[in-house]
Write a structure and sequence with these properties.
By secondary structure, the protein is mainly α. 43% of the residues lie in helices and 6% in strands. 0% of the residues are buried.
């Protein structure tokens, strides 16, 4: 966490995972009523809080999972085929990340 360039690490780094891509920080939300506004504010605050702590030094140790269209982290009623597809996607992303990850 507190990288010092000329100092040897005493232990391997902690590998983090985030369910969004760093490029997917801002998107427009259509607001029709006060409930939509509240949801948009919560998403904005959550995203801002998460991204505030991610710097270039820490980002290299985080595996970003870009958003999958129409799937949210709180979708608990996915079909078996959707789950298998997401797991396979995550496996491929992780394999790709770890093939070039160095610490």
């Amino acid at each position: 966490m507190f990288d010092q360039p000329n100092r040897k690490r005493e232990r391997p780094p902690i590998l983090g995972m985030q369910l969004s891509s760093p490029q997917h920080l801002n998107h427009l939300t259509t607001i029709h009523n006060s409930l939509d506004l509240l949801k948009a504010m919560i998403v904005t605050m959550r995203t801002s809080y998460d991204n505030r702590y991610i710097s270039e030094n820490v980002a290299k140790e985080i595996l970003f999972f870009p958003p999958i269209e129409d799937v949210q982290a709180t979708d608990f009623d996915l079909s078996r085929s959707e789950k298998v597809s997401i797991i396979e996607y995550g496996y491929q992303q992780t394999k790709q990340f770890l093939s070039s990850w160095t610490y």
